[in-house]
Every structure is written in C-alpha cells, then in structure tokens.
Design a protein that fits this description.
single chain, two-stranded antiparallel sheet, 44% helix, globular, binds adenosine-5'-diphosphate, binds magnesium ion, AAA family ATPase, ATPase_dyneun-rel_AAA, P-loop_NTPase
Length: 385
C-alpha cells in the first residue's frame, strides 16, 4: 500500500458513508480533504481494527489515535503521523468525542488545532466538511438553519424551504460537526450551541418541529488562546465542552520534524524539490523562531525581546515552503539561507517600527556571532536592506 499525502482519485461514495454531495475527488484537487488525502490509511485501519467502535464511528478510538499519531499495523501498513505531540493529548481528545461532551481544542495560533480537528472528523465520521467558520459576523443561521427565500415565499415555511447548517446535518446524520474559532463568534450566537450540546436537539419553532441528534453526533470546536477576552465562552457553554490544550512543540527536534514533514507533503503537491538538502535551513528557521518566541537564546545565555506576532510552527512551515519555491524557480533547487531570509524577516517584522528594532538587535547580537551562520547573517542583512 502506498502511504502518501498525494491527492487521490478515490471515489468517496464507494462505501456509501460519505454524503453524495462531497463528489468525486479530482486528482488535481489543490488540497484534498483529509478523508480523501489519507483514504488508503483510513481504509487499512478500518479493515484491521477489531476493537469496539462507538455508534457510527468508522474506527475505534484506538484506531483514531493511531491514525493521528502514526504507527505500523499488523500487516505492515505504515500509518504516517499527522500530529506530533503528546500521545495523552490525542487520547483525551478522542475519548471525549465518545462521551456526551463536546471537544474544545485550545492553544496559541499554529499549534495544529484546525489540523487535528479536521483529521479527527475524517477518522471518526469519514467527513471533515461539516464545518462552521467562526468570525465576528457569524450569524445564528450558520449554526442552526437558514431559509431558501424563494421557496419560503412560494410555499411558506416547510422542511423543503429550510437550509440546514453543517451542525444540523451532523446531528441528523450522526457525524462530527466542526466549529472553527468559536470565541470569535458573538456570545449570543455561541449560545445557540447550548441546547444543541446539552439537550442534543435543535428546535425549529417556525415549523413546530425539532431535529434530534442521533448517536454518533458530536462537535469539535477550536479556539485561540490569544482571543481570550474577545468573546469569552459563557460558563453555561464551557460546561458542555471538555477542553484539550494543544501545546507548542516541546523540543527544537520535534519542531524541525513537524516542519520537515509538512513541507515535504505540501512541496510534493506543488512539485517542489525534495527537502533532505534543506534540513539545515529548516533547523535555522526553527531555531530563530523558537528563540524569539521564548525570549531567550537556545543556550539560555542571552535574553531577547520577542516580536509582536506569533512565530508559530505553522509560520515556519510557510517560510520554508516559500523558500523551497524560490530555490526551485530562481535558484539551483537546493534550499539556502538566501531563500528563507526574506520569509523569516516578513514573519518576524509585523509591526514595522517595534519589530524591526527587535529583529536588528537579534541579528547583530545573536545571528552575527553564531558559528556557521555567516551566510544566514548576510542573507538576512540583504533581505532587510
Ligand atoms: N504538533 C504538530 N504536529 C503536526 N503538525 C503541526 C503541529 N503543529 C503545527 N502543525 C502544522 O501547522 C499547520 C497549521 O496548523 P493549524 O491547525 O492551522 O493551527 P491552528 O489552528 O492551531 O492555528 C498545519 O499544517 C499543521 O500541520
Ligand atoms: Mg486554526
């Protein structure tokens, strides 16, 4: 079996458990959903998984955790790790979804909250697309239901005129719903989740009806640590959730590993050169980001000022991907300091005044003095000129 993140041309309807409107996946889809990108792995897990599965789950909790963390199956099939982090975090997240409480993934930006949520939904329900994107403008209809006004005017209120939200569909079909950036949603709109999560029902007063959730329904929300205070979750709503905090990568090696893996996957889908030759550069980008984020050099000797933006793993991934594209199209195909310097600068200097001072100080006191970093120092100076 081939293990890859390449787009696949698997027909998701083949076993009838993915809704028909997901359609067939074109092989040139820019970013296939997790359930399509990893269809082979999910199928291998399902066929060899003999542990009990909660109602409507396509895998047992154990197999879902294996899908996320990676492993080797009895027949030798290799499951690639999607999430690199503490096993316990994943185990708690998965088991929460088998209970009557919903799951809240909390963490600073770029800690893979969205990524984990997508993969959990894909592994559990075979469908990660029942998604509500939370913003300050998210209306109640996005969580409950809306109306098709043409039908409403022509025939009056009826089930035909009703446009279900992704949450309503997940309730009716016993699947996993996802709400992204929950705390950005205005508090009164958030509260429409309370009845859904506590009573497991969604009343439709206009029709004198309700949609009752069937077994298998649950909800994964993500929220940003930094947004705290924007629209704090009401305590009534918070009680419906089990909160799991996704930590920043604990060691530089773990972070380099995450960046390398993801860049390889993204690079393959963009036909970029292979990463191995660029690992040194990845290590440098990760070192710079970690040091500035932590406010101290890796050896613990020099205190540093931190810039205003979050220098997350996700940001490191995009800096390196951008660098690989430069190397491929305008260099010799090998990732070098000159290919990542501009990206690093762009990620660090968000506020042109304050962050530039922070960066200059770091560049002159740390980067300049570091053994083997003179090419990086030069490239950064050129990029900043
Ligand atoms: N611990 C990790 N394991 C695997 N991938 C990670 C990890 N941390 C970050 N990433 C990668 O970072 C990228 C952005 O993560 P994302 O889910 O958008 O972050 P968040 O929603 O927390 O802001 C994803 O492509 C993901 O693969
Ligand atoms: Mg996110």
């Amino acid at each position: 079996m081939s293990v890859s993140a390449e787009p696949t041309s698997v027909d998701p309807r083949r076993n009838g458990s993915v809704p028909a409107d997901t359609g067939t996946v074109r092989p040139d889809t820019l970013r296939p959903h997790a359930e399509h990108a990893f269809a082979d792995e999910l199928a291998a897990l399902a066929s060899q998984d003999d542990r009990p599965r909660p109602a409507r789950w396509r895998l047992s909790p154990w197999a879902v955790a294996t899908y996320l963390l990676g492993g080797t199956l009895p027949d030798g099939t290799v499951i690639t790790p999607k999430y690199v982090g503490p096993r316990r975090v994943v185990e708690v997240a998965v088991t929460t979804l088998a209970t009557d409480r919903a799951l809240l993934l909390l963490g600073v930006p770029g800690t893979a909250k969205t990524w984990v949520s997508e993969h959990l939904a894909a592994a559990l329900s075979g469908d990660s697309t029942l998604l509500v994107q939370g913003t300050a403008g998210t209306p109640e209809e996005a969580i409950r239901y809306g109306w098709n006004y043409a039908r409403l005017l022509a025939h009056g209120p009826s089930r035909d005129a009703l446009v279900p939200s992704p949450v309503m569909r997940a309730m009716a079909e016993g699947r996993t719903a996802r709400v992204e950036e929950l705390t950005r949603i205005p508090a009164d709109v958030q509260d429409s989740l309370i009845t859904i999560l506590s009573e497991k029902t969604l009343p439709i007063p206009e029709l004198g009806q309700e949609v009752q959730a069937v077994r298998g329904f649950n909800l994964i929300a993500t929220a940003n640590d930094r947004d705290r205070g924007v629209n704090e979750l009401s305590s009534a709503l918070r009680r419906r959730f089990n909160t799991v905090v996704l930590p920043l990568p604990e060691s530089p090696e773990a972070e380099v590993d995450i960046v390398t893996r993801r860049v390889e996957q993204i690079g393959r889908s963009l036909d970029l050169p292979a990463v191995p030759d660029g690992v040194d550069e990845i290590r440098r980008v990760v070192t710079v980001f970690r040091e500035l984020r932590d406010g101290v050099t890796a050896d613990g000797r020099t205190k540093l000022k931190s810039p205003s933006g979050t220098l997350s793993t996700a940001e490191a991934i995009s800096v390196v991907t951008g660098g690989l594209a430069l190397a491929a199209h305008f260099g010799d195909g090998v990732l070098r300091a000159g290919d990542v310097a501009a990206g690093v600068l762009g990620a660090v200097v968000r506020d042109p005044a304050a962050d530039r001072v922070v960066w200059q100080e770091y560049l002159e006191t740390v980067v300049r003095e570091r053994d083997g970093w003179s090419d990086f120092y030069r490239a950064c100076r050129e990029a900043g000129a």
